[in-house]
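User: Hi! Is it possible to get a structure for several chains at once, not just one? Here's what I have:
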Amino acid sequence: MTEDNATILYIEDNPQNMRLVRKFLRMGGYKMLEAETGGEGLASAKSHLPTVILLDINLPDIDGVDVVKELKKAPETAEIPVIALTANAMHGDRERFIEAGCDDYLSKPVSKGDLLEKVGSFIKQAQS
Ligand code: MN
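Assistant: Yes, the chains can be modeled jointly so their relative placement is included. Here is the combined structure:
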């Protein structure tokens, strides 16, 4: 796998956040898949097997924590790195996300530098 054919799935119900991340990923040269609900995100992850998943925690249907649990339980998606993206993280949230199976965590609003650095490092790990 090269960085050129890496595909990033972003599960996010907020259009502004989606737009911002879309812009950053485009600048990084990544292909992007978008899902607006947890259910849609799970279906997309299973059918497209993206390289990395970016996951909002507050989703309209399924809590992001349950989305990651589901992804990590299914053998076909268990190895895909999941980065939680969330605003107003409370004390203990990071631990809760990691415990649920998230591989990493970014606070919103994400910066282009932080996002591309984290995504890039997971892609490199997947390649090695
Ligand atoms: Mn949300």
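The first strand starts at residue 7 and ends at 11. The helical segments are 15-27, 38-48, 64-73, 93-100, 112-127.

User: Great, thank you!
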